[in-house]
Write a structure and sequence with these properties.
The protein has 2 domains: 36 residues, no CATH class; 34 residues. The protein has 4 helices and no strands. It is mainly alpha-helical and 85 residues long. GO terms for molecular function: structural constituent of ribosome.
Length: 85
């Protein structure tokens, strides 16, 4: 692969352009490109940035840690028990 990956979709034979655009939009959305583009349109204050990062953290961590070892699970349960007590 090249250093710069090209993002795009190949229009299949007989496929409507609308469907190809939908696939492209879905692909860009899952990669977070559209969200970043919208975010960069206007100034974001430090408070807004902090809130945005807090909202997106669970999604990032879910993707990052798909496998949880038993020891990690035990630690998480301990922490949950401490916070609820």
């Amino acid at each position: 692969m090249t250093e710069q990956q090209l993002r795009g979709v190949i229009v299949k034979k007989g496929e409507p352009v609308d469907r190809a655009l939908k696939r492209l939009k879905t692909k860009l959305d899952t990669e977070g490109i559209l969200e970043e583009m919208r975010r960069r349109r206007a100034f974001e204050s430090p408070t807004q940035r902090k809130l945005r990062k807090q909202r997106t953290a669970p999604k990032r961590h879910k993707v990052r840690w798909k496998y949880v070892s038993p020891s990690q699970e035990a630690k998480a349960e301990e922490a949950a028990a401490k916070t609820s007590a």
